[in-house]
Amino acid sequence: MMINKRLIGLCEESKKYMILTVVANWIALLCNISIILWIGQFINKLIVHEEVSLLSMLSLILFLGGRFISNLYYGKFSALASENAKVRLRDQIYKKLLRLGTNYQQVDGTSSFVQIMVEGVEQLEVYFGRYLPQFFYALLAPLTLFVVILPYSFKAALILLISVPLIPISIIAIMKIAKRILKNYWKSYSNLGGTFLENLQGLTTLKVFNQDEERHQKMNQEAEDFRIMTMKVLSMQLNSINIMDLVAFGGAAAGTITALIQYSRGEILVGHLLIITLLSAEFFIPMRLLGSYFHIAMNGMAASDRIFKVLDAKEPEEVEKSTIKVEESIALENVEFSYDETRPILKQVSLAIKPTNLTAIVGESGSGKSTVASLLMKTYKVHKGNIKWGEVNFNDISSSQLYNHMTLVSTNSYIMGTTIRENLLMAKLNATDEEIKVALELAQLSEFVSSLKEGLDTPVGEGGNLLSGGQKQRLALARAILANREVMIFDEATSNIDIESEEAIWKAIHELAKTKAVLVISHRLVNVKHADCIYVMKQGEVVESGTHESLYANQSEYFRMVNKQNELEQVREVE
Ligand SMILES: Nc1ncnc2c1ncn2[C@@H]1O[C@H](COP(=O)(O)OP(=O)(O)OP(=O)(O)O)[C@@H](O)[C@H]1O
């Protein structure tokens, strides 16, 4: 019954605290039983006018104290069991996310991950801290009470013991329905979270297109679906609690009535009747409580399914068979790739990125240029063909080794919500002020940084939203320059930058190409005019390659593109 071995196995340290929780609870029960027995004996003695000894009074104080301390420790161990489990689970999910790396979105959406990490794990608090210890305690307690009541009334003890399993039976009966409802509940919750995050991120765009009202309605509908699901969960829980109460009170009443009959026949004393009546209630409390925890824990179980889905997600294979020789060229050899395995995106692509060279990829939108960059960064795996760095196949090197020698600046390079300095230091932790200054100058950002009151220590806001689009791109560029890798890929890295700054940046990129292997992807053909080799892509294929002069002389695809762009962009002549 919801004893998930895998989940428990993941949280080994919690086991110890769960056992201690059961022990503390059981000692509290023993103290409680002793107190009730004491009261029963006390009544019996009162009737026969017998005196209560001082020792007996002291023992009562001892039992009361024992119960108080055990309850205190019960709370403490229960909290430790759940805290430990939560830390362990979050740690596992976090490490998994790191291993998944840039592939994490292929497993689930961002908001889903946040929900699993925060809410999902939180839902398991009751499972570890309450439900599991209560499960074992609920087996132990009725047996203990059975043994205690047995000497007073065999019949009452037997009736009580037989009635107790009716509670777990009723729980099992509703479990099937509960599972289905909870699965839908989580699905609805996750949909709502995803829509909320997306709407929040795209709020400006929605407002610009006057679509905010429509989205508002859609979100209202999803919120309404979630409300209905929540109500279903609550009513299911309430109904099952009612059933459990019926069994618990009915069972306790049956035990008490049996004892009453025996008392009326003079088979037991009034004190014993009181003991049985008080202990009858105790008989059902643990199972009844287990039932209440059960529903909350069920929610946690549904969350754990999602946690396992993340933990079981296939990780990119990270083999480290070879070491890169940075002075060698990188080559794509007849590479084929598709995102969904149905629509081919790259077809037989071959190209080379050579050290101390500027290599460019140009081509119409959607021709697969950024996909080449993603494959070079090992975000995806090549389906057919090879990518090699010298003789070393990319499949034989880890991403971390690759990232030590290669960096990418793209239109969506992420700016962290810290300061300009911290964003830069991500690339090189021990960068000197001089190195930072040079990187900022090359990226045409130093003037802006000097104009800021807090300079490098200016916060840039979440995702760099306190900066302009161009400033963000320049900061990403400065960061890449500071990283100083042997291979640098610029994918539309200057698309948001004004022409004057752009020219200066392209000068810097050309300068970098004198010592590094630089790959640029740019729509503006004027920027790549002086590249050592330009690859022209069309519908996933490299249709031409060569220098600007040779390609232009070919009068083919590149020629057509240059002329078209010149027509549109008469301000700057390409040829
Ligand atoms: N993550 C993805 N999942 C599925 N399909 C994708 C994904 N990224 C890109 N594609 C598809 O792959 C094709 C090539 O996209 P890619 O971004 O490589 O083109 P591109 O030449 O860089 O285009 P652009 O110049 O507009 O940036 C497109 O048809 C696009 O729809």
From TrEMBL:
Leader sequence segment: none
Annotated Pfam families: ABC_membrane (PF00664), ABC_tran (PF00005)
GO MF annotation terms: ABC-type oligopeptide transporter activity; ATP binding; ATP hydrolysis activity
Chain ranges of the ABC transmembrane type-1 domain: 19-299
PROSITE patterns per the UniProt record, alphabetical: ABC_TM1F, ABC_TRANSPORTER_1, ABC_TRANSPORTER_2
Residues in ABC transporter domain copies: 330-564
Residues passing through the membrane, by range: 20-40, 52-74, 135-152, 158-178, 241-263, 269-291
Keyword Membrane: yes
Topology of this chain in the membrane: Multi-pass membrane protein
Localisation per UniProt entry: Cell membrane
Gene3D superfamilies: ABC transporter type 1, transmembrane domain, P-loop containing nucleotide triphosphate hydrolases
Keywords: ATP-binding, Cell membrane, Membrane, Nucleotide-binding, Transmembrane, Transmembrane helix, Transport
GO cellular component, one term: plasma membrane
Domain of life: Bacteria
Protein name: ABC transporter ATP-binding protein/permease
Organism: Holtiella tumoricola
Lineage: Bacteria, Bacillati, Bacillota, Clostridia, Lachnospirales
